[in-house]
Amino acid sequence: xxxxxxxxxxxxxxxxxxxxxxxxxxxxxxxxxxxxxxxxxxxxxxxxxxxxxxxxxxxxxxxxxxxxxxxxxxxxxxxxxxxxxxxxxxxxxxxxxxxxxxxxxxxxxxxxxxxxxxxxxxxxxxxxxxxxxxxxxxxxxxxxxxxxxxxxxxxxxxxxxxxxxxxxxxxxxxxxxxxxxxxxxxxxxxxxxxxxxxxxxxxxxxxxxxxxxxxxxxxxxxxxxxxxxxxxxxxxxxxxxxxxxxxxxxxxxxxxxxxxxxxxxxxxxxxxxxxxxxxxxxxxxxxxxxxxxxxxxxxxxxxxxxxxxxxxxxxxxxxxxxxxxxxxxxxxxxxxxxxxxxxxxxxxxxxxxxxxxxxxxxxxxxxxxxxxxxxxxxxxxxxxxxxxxxxxxxxxxxxxxxxxxxxxxxxxxxxxxxxxxxxxxxxxxxxxxxxxxxxxxxxxxxxxxxxxxxxxxxxxxxxxxxxxxxxxxxxxxxxxxxxxxxxxxxxxxxxxxxxxxxxxxxxxxxxxxxxxxxxxxxxxxxxxxxxxxxxxxxxxxxxxxxxxxxxxxxxxxxxxxxxxxxxxxxxxxxxxxxxxxxxxxxxxxxxxxxxxxxxxxxxxxxxxxxxxxxxxxxxxxxxxxxxxxxxxxxxxxxxxxxxxxxxxxxxxxxxxxxxxxxxxxxxxxxxxxxxxxxxxxxxxxxxxxxxxxxxxxxxxxxxxxxxxxxxxxxxxxxxxxxxxxxxxxxxxxxxxxxxxxxxxxxxxxxxxxxxxxxxxxxxxxxxxxxxxxxxxxxxxxxxxxxxxxxxxxxxxxxxxxxxxxxxxxxxxxxxxxxxxxxxxxxxxxxxxxxxxxxxxxxxxxxxxxxxxxxxxxxxxxxxxx
Length: 865
Fold this sequence. Notes:
In the N-terminal section; belongs to the binding-protein-dependent transport system permease family. In the C-terminal section; belongs to the OsmX family. It is found in: Cell membrane; Membrane. Pfam families: BPD_transp_1 (PF00528), OpuAC (PF04069). Keywords: Cell membrane, Membrane, Transmembrane, Transmembrane helix, Transport. By secondary structure, the protein is α/β, with parallel strands linked by helices. It contains 38 helices and 20 strands. It has a five-stranded mixed sheet with strand order 2-1-3-10-4, with helices on both faces. The protein starts with 5 loop residues before the first helix and ends with a helix.
């Protein structure tokens, strides 16, 4: 029978959805992330025992005093085993998923109960949703939504929805038809019948369905930890992948406690909200006799007061009891993903420690190789330290290399192999394995199924050596493989395992690397650092460190050993132990790009610097802000329109600005305010004002040509801010001199002008824009400056530093620096470019890069003795 390519169809469908509905998935991601953040912020805010107290009050209200005591003890136990943070994350995920599930599922169940056609159509869909293996939902989840909480929430919703739909439908269908008929006979409308008769009577069944939703959601949230969903899922996944019994027991216990609490509370909620439930509760309490006090439950108003009081205490402690975080470095977050292999874990936590010392906020995440590469390609993970290239991870590199950046190899050269204990005689090569499957139980113990080595072993090695029909490759994890190796060695049993070099196992156990005479495993790999696309541009300093990072075998194996000895959850302690044994290594790996600068004699003063939103003004203002901060000043910068800025300079609200175009462009402002200002001097010479058109516009070289081609430009000149001297001169002098008064001059601002220029340029449309030199647009686009034979733009300007008349007295040191400051066209152009590349909001980052690329510039601009 011919093969039906269902898998290919599914893959094509997923690719089509991803490529064509990315806007929808982005919207869903933002909504779910926002909802999760709100709930998690509320739950993570209080101190653990206070939140446990709130949960206990709810348990008292719903189930009585014993349940309240057990609730508090259970959550206190979670806190004592250091699983509180993951538990709150998992609870947040469950609440978000269940909220959305119930909102969607209950109406669907009602619809299915009222329409047999809808019920029949929904049934096979629900069967598919409920019986599909839970982990399968994570695959499209990663592709559509990336790594993190969102794919976990979506997969949880899909997996947990069927019980709510089915139980809602069942509950409504089980309502006695005579009651419904009686309601209808009294003229009750269908909607009122639904809300007053059917739903109240079906509520116990519906609540049972919601209870199942919560249980299934919690189980799926744990599975979602495999794709970076966080919470207890990550703890369980780490425990499994490292065969860590202690962590597994603690995380598993936290899951059990959370599951029992949610199960008992949702079950008891039915007794509070359902009339039938309240009746049953009253009967149960009546039968207790003298033990009635154990089941006494506070009134709803009392419970609400208790929760509110505890909540206010928690909020007060959160506001006043926590110290503000101390800022260090730039504080930017960097996410690092790793497969749970020894060298990957060790180097990931090494970089986490280094980046924290340099003031970053790194976040590390353990993932399988497939999700790691896919997440990096999407931009969810910034960097990984353990890509085995060109062989082991070749399939992932081939698929995703367009979305990744190779930051270079930090270790060379590795090897992949199958190893056996040295006490196994007569097995020295892969050829020797043939015919000896019985000795090894017909099994080769492998590692993670997504690892490149496993793919090479199955696709190539077994075939090349004729082992495919004789041996089965046992997929597991690195930790499971090592555990099995340890057990076999201690029992002196033969075992064949997938290994690689370097690895500490060769020091711990007597092993034989099986030779590969056919070269099926390849010639060996290098260990590479990979960044997401654009990482080096976004984080040039970190990328530079990583490109120069190298460890030798002795350093790597000793680092692995210290991290391993520190234990699960304490990897960074192991890194710190290792760094103490290797003093100076942090400075060698990540030399601080920011030298310690001498303080100026006026350090501590806070000059106010104003600037217009022009490129040279932005660039030079942020440059001086950076330089002054290095000298110990505390500058305040303000972005203002040109008119208010000159007014502020004259009144002393602004101390200085660096973008005064004189003697022509801003002459009217100088003439108006010069008695209150001081001309500190020019730092750039000479500028020009002009109208520019794209070079593909033929026959337009001068302002006279612009007039004769008016229709081609639709009678429009794209201008900048209306208050600038250039716009005033264009309207008052240039336009009348060349007969351009009939042209419409727009005045939406510099940013709008540049956006319009970019749009027209890429559409190859004629456009005339107000520009000036120097400007980076002349480097980005092919433009023609229209000649001004009548000289109406006036003499060329200098760009000057202007200050309030008290500037020299208030800031004598800064004033002296400004008087001697000059910039060349190349310096200004490269500074503007670095700031443009850094992007809006990252001006400081662009300036830092420029300073790094111009060593000594701080001392040149602001010399101190």
